[in-house]
């Protein structure tokens, strides 16, 4: 085949056709094999980079060759001041699918998740950890392409008039997969961040780093909690990141930590770490099958050198589509931090407004009133709102000067309560302080005695009364007896006094 003078031929075999992608580490081009007329992808990066990755990536491709979800690497070398690698040409990514369709059904997510588990299992068995799990790095085969092809293959796009009618709604995921056919296999690409978790020669695992790692590796959106805490990346972290990826597909990209912005990388990683540590798994997976929540919970419980049970993880995902414990929907936790949304467009009636005004009048805090915080015992303070600078910032307007705008998280956190608490003596959790024998002032302030009758009676500081047959009996119970016990003591005192009067009357009777 003859080529023009301005054509770029890499390695004397692959003719560069067009640019199809670009990332932070290089560019991707579509190329054609001159000898066999096949299409391939060429990835290149400059030789002047401080930290080149393509050479390491070619080694990883050779180590993983022949495994599931692994494309084939055909050539690696240098051309015109660039490091180049030639791999199989692939189609659209999971990110493209997520952006093109309305939602992804649970059965499709389960099928894709089982494929990715087999892919990560193959990597781990070869002694590698991926460390960069995200939808952009998982691609379908070359025949599965979104964009202009979906408009030509989907009937509503072919029927509508572009000049006189609006375009139809986006297609469903099942429509896209029916157009693709059964060729929906996933492939993993971009192994520049992959590393060895064990020595490739001795097969002995590397020890965990004792000091926290300052600079994190991977994508913060799908990073595991241990990676956020600065620990060495291991097999458990790949599986936990996969759980967040599947959860992101089911939630249509609306993870609770979506929308976080930061001025520095460290601040963004710290904020996402705080959100992931604070949210409960029941709130994170609310309304989804239990298999998804158990998947994430299992990966979080693994230790550094533990080998994940890949068969168990596949059973958890497949159980979401079958009748059983894994298909039950997750319900809210008793101590959930999710706040129900208020009813929209509901105006209070005039009578309700008057009742609300009266209730606010009666709930006015009194002088020397002590606020009760017992209702906040079971709820930890949220780290998403800065307590030092803005302790009462409950809306986005109050956070204009802050670094972060927690647009998705503030909707789910309960606002700080400013309503007055009930009086201290009437609160159900209030308990009177136990009498201290060594404190004489407390003894004088809490009760006093008088001799208005033959029996000595004591009075509490707040007006409560009671009596005892003897002056010093049960002194340690002063201020501690419950109202029922005080009533029983008064009843016994009255009965004893009545019996004494009856005996006195019988003695004076002739």
From TrEMBL:
Keywords: ATP-binding, Nucleotide-binding. The keyword Glycosyltransferase does not apply. GO terms for molecular function: ATP binding; protein serine/threonine kinase activity. Gene3D superfamilies: Transferase(Phosphotransferase) domain 1 (1.10.510.10). SUPFAM superfamilies: Protein kinase-like (PK-like). Residues 14-336 form the Protein kinase domain. InterPro entries: CK1_Ser-Thr_kinase, Kinase-like_dom_sf, Prot_kinase_dom, Protein_kinase_ATP_BS, Ser/Thr_kinase_AS. Residues 331-400, 440-510 are annotated as: Disordered. ATP binds at residue 43. Residues 346-360, 441-457 have a biased composition (Low complexity). Its EC number is 2.7.11.1. Pfam families: Pkinase. It is an enzyme of class 2 (transferase). Residues 370-379 have a biased composition (Basic and acidic residues). Residues 458-473 have a biased composition (Basic residues). This is non-specific serine/threonine protein kinase. It comes from Parasitella parasitica. The lineage of its organism: Eukaryota, Fungi, Fungi incertae sedis, Mucoromycota, Mucoromycotina.
């Amino acid at each position: 085949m003859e080529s023009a003078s301005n054509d770029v031929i890499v390695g004397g075999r692959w003719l560069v056709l067009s640019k199809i992608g670009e990332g932070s580490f290089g560019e991707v081009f579509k190329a054609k094999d001159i000898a066999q007329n096949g299409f391939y992808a060429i990835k290149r990066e400059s030789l002047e980079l401080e930290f080149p990755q393509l050479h390491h990536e070619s080694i990883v491709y050779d180590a993983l060759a022949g495994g599931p979800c692994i494309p084939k690497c055909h050539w690696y070398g240098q051309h015109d001041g660039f490091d180049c690698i030639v791999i199989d040409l692939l189609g659209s990514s999971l990110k493209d699918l997520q952006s093109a369709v309305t939602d992804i059904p649970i059965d499709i997510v389960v099928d894709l998740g089982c494929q990715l588990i087999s892919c990560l299992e193959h990597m781990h068995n070869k002694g590698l950890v991926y460390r960069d799990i995200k939808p952009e790095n998982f691609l379908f085969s070359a025949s599965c392409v979104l964009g202009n092809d979906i408009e030509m293959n989907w009937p509503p796009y072919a029927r509508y008039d572009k000049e006189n009618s609006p375009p139809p709604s986006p297609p469903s995921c099942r429509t896209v997969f029916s157009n693709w056919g059964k060729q929906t296999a996933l492939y993993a690409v971009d192994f520049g961040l992959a590393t060895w978790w064990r020595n490739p020669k001795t097969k002995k695992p590397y020890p965990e780093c004792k000091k926290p790692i300052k600079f994190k590796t991977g994508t913060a959106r799908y990073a595991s909690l241990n990676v956020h805490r600065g620990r060495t990346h291991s097999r458990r972290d790949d599986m936990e990141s996969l759980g967040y990826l599947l959860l992101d597909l089911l939630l249509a990209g609306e993870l609770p930590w979506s929308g976080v912005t930061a001025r520095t990388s460290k601040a963004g990683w710290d904020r996402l770490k705080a959100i992931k540590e604070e949210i409960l798994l029941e709130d994170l997976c609310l309304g989804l099958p239990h298999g998804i929540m158990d998947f994430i919970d299992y990966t979080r419980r693994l230790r550094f050198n533990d080998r994940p049970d890949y068969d168990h993880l596949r059973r958890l995902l497949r159980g979401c589509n079958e009748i059983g414990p894994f298909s039950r929907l997750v319900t809210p936790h008793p101590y959930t931090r999710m706040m129900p949304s208020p009813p929209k467009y509901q105006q209070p009636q005039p009578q309700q407004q008057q009742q609300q005004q009266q209730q606010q009048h009666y709930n006015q805090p009194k002088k020397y009133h002590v606020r009760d915080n017992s209702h906040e015992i079971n709820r930890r303070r949220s780290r998403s709102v800065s307590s030092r600078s803005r302790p009462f910032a409950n809306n986005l307007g109050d956070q204009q000067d802050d670094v972060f705008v927690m647009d998705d998280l503030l909707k789910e956190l309960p606002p700080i309560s400013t309503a007055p608490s009930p009086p201290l003596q009437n609160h159900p959790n209030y308990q009177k302080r136990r009498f201290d024998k060594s404190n004489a002032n407390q003894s004088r302030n809490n009760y006093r005695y008088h001799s208005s009758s033959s029996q000595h009676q004591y009075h509490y500081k707040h007006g409560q009364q009671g009596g005892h047959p003897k002056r010093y009996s049960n002194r340690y119970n002063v201020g501690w007896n419950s109202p029922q016990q005080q009533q029983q003591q008064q009843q016994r005192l009255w009965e004893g006094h009545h019996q004494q009067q009856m005996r006195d009357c019988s003695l004076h009777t002739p």
